[in-house]
């Protein structure tokens, strides 16, 4: 696999590490403000999916010597758009952005940035990344398997997050 794959693969992993640090900091702040974590039981599956994603992507591209399709620029543009949307999501949520589900009793939902139009734009970002990064390099099996796993995990996560947000907003 070309060097560009390993550079991008490493950069995305680095980005994830930075995001985990931001999430940890935000989580501590939310707990100090009286918040709590909801649905912690499914988090390990979310983490496992993302670890599997990076491992599968590396293995498929290396062992099967995949090649970027002729339409790789389209996947690259979608991936880039997802990065812009990711930054917008994180900055719009501020301290409320997290990889876990933290809520503050009595808080209102954030309705700025992309959250004005859709409830969970960050999940759109993640879904686009998990699909487009493998497609850029012809890793079709990774794209298919991880996208299916992501749909399963997100269906549960979004229902847990919605319930937690609704419950928190009803509390005084």
Please explain how this structure is put together.
- By secondary structure, this protein is mainly alpha-helical.
- It has one domain: Four Helix Bundle (Hemerythrin (Met), subunit A), CATH 1.20.120.
- It has helices spanning 3-32, 43-63, 72-93, 121-136, 140-170, and strands spanning 36-38, 101-103.
- Helix 2 runs antiparallel to helix 5 (140-170).
- The protein is elongated.
- The termini are far apart.
- The model has no long low-confidence stretch (mean pLDDT 95).
- The tally of structural domains comes to 1
Radius of gyration: 17 Å
- Please give the count of helices: 5
What is the third-level CATH name, the topology? Four Helix Bundle (Hemerythrin (Met), subunit A)
List how many beta strands DSSP finds: 2
C-alpha geometry? elongated
Find the structural class using helix and strand composition.
mainly alpha
| Beta-strand content | under 5%
| CATH architecture level-2 label | Up-down Bundle
Oligomer: single chain
Strand adjacency order, main sheet = 1-2
H-E order: HEHHEHH
- Low-pLDDT stretches are none
Mean pLDDT: 95
Amino- and carboxy-terminal Cα gap: 55 Å
Pfam families: ICMT
Membrane topology: Multi-pass membrane protein
Protein name: Isoprenylcysteine carboxyl methyltransferase
GO molecular function: protein C-terminal S-isoprenylcysteine carboxyl O-methyltransferase activity
């Amino acid at each position: 696999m070309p060097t560009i794959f390993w550079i991008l693969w490493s950069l995305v992993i680095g980005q994830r590490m930075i995001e985990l640090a931001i999430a940890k900091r935000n989580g501590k702040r939310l707990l100090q403000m009286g918040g709590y974590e909801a649905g912690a039981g499914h988090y390990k599956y979310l983490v496992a999916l993302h670890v599997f994603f990076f491992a599968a992507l590396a293995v498929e591209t290396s062992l099967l010597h995949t090649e970027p399709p002729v339409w790789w620029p389209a996947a690259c543009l979608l991936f880039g758009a997802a990065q812009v949307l990711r930054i917008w999501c994180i900055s719009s949520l501020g301290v409320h952005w997290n990889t876990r589900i933290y809520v503050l009793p009595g808080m209102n939902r954030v309705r700025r940035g992309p959250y004005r139009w859709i409830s969970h734009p960050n999940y759109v970002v993640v879904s686009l990344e998990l699909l487009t990064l493998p497609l850029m390099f012809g890793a079709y099996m990774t794209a298919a398997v991880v996208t299916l796993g992501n749909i399963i995990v997100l269906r549960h996560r979004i229902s847990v997050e919605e319930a937690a947000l609704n419950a928190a907003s009803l509390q005084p």
